[in-house]
Task: structure prediction
Amino acid sequence: MIKENPKVTILVANITYVIGLACQLGLNFLIFKQLPLDEIGSYNLIMSLALFAGFVMDLGISQTLIRGFSQNTLGFSQAVWGALALRIPLVVLGLGALVIWLYLKSSLGHFHSALLGLAILAQTLLGFRAIPTAWLRAHDRQNCANIINLLPPFCYFCLAFLLFYFHQFNLLLFFSGILMVEIAVTAMAFLATGQVRLPGSPKESFSPSHIKTAVGSLWKPSLIFSVVTFCELLQSRLDCILVYYFRSGTELAYYSLATKIFEVFEYTICLPLQTSLPWLCKMAFAGEQNPTVTFWLKIFSFLGIVLAVAAALYLPAFLTVFWGDKFANTDNLIFLIMCGACLNPVYSMISLLLVTEGKERFLLIASIVPVSAQLAINLVLIPPFGGLGAALGMLVFFSMTFLILTNIAFKTRLIETLALLRIILLLVVIFSVLIISRQFFAPSSLTNIIVLSFIILVGLVVLINRSDWRLMLDLLRNASKISP
Result:
């Protein structure tokens, strides 16, 4: 059922990811290096507020579209009209609420309000672009979708570089350029869907019943995903707004750097999940069994955990190479957040399996409860402790999400119980080692090397057994036999 060559698709996904990541890192480097701390805080505040508009335009529809397209239960024009019918009323309400908020309560001046308007328009276009990219991914055109998604970060970096190079950088020009980029890339994405030809597919026509059918197929699962997405948005952005509100733009700049590092890590984790989602949806729809799910869960979790630990140990010192002591106050924030991020690969994989099995309703409690707890912690700790209080709130979120989703995985038998127990054992060992090393040993290169090497060794012993090694060798031998 999968017509793509998995080797080529994964290769292209990794290449475009690396290029896009380099562009994102380059953009953040320029902004954090060149702008004063108060402007860095303003930039991150505007981006945080604009993402709420992005949520309104997404409404959790993107994941519903990928599953519907992959299982041939939804047509392209149905998706477009259904998404418009669901989104337009909320967009009108959201814009009205934003105008009232800016007029009555906001401390933003006219300049920053204009920047926010440009950022919101760009996020609106990004929401519409999710429709054609989901169509391409579901119909074996993931390479095209990956290239389209690479263009925005590449263009953002080029725009910022040119503005800094010619000493013309200001936030108004930059956000105006971002809007122009989104207009062009969104147009390209819709044009690219013309390359997909489905044999035997009836021609879709526009009619009221057509829209009604589309809305009926989208609204229920999208409502669940919208709640989950809104909780994710609150988790990732509300803390930044609270730090700015209760403390200052300068302290937000420190905290933003730490959260940017986690976002890069999370983006890295999402790459294999995003690539495998259409394939897993097709397999679930066809009733095919995947005997290697547990194996890949362990490998994915292990690599993600090692990456998070390495970031916690090495990044605080590494960043001084670029910025000196400008962001020295972020060292503890980075360490705390990336230690908590060790839990992210495990619960992200469980979330993916729940979506492919059509059990996304379980994600509601796994989103609402942790975000509510994080918000309570933030309201108590951010006023006195600023970014440190927000980092502790993130640790609470990571822990509760992990506990809830692993409990769901145990009860639904989503994955093997023994595999989950092995992962939990590894995490207990990791946190114990990190706490001991941080408490009793001064941070140094030698200490970090010993800690990371020990964790890798324990992980290989705990997670990978003989049957896993045999399976890995079989997969490598059979990989060259996979036909496009």
Observations:
- The chain has 18 helices and no strands.
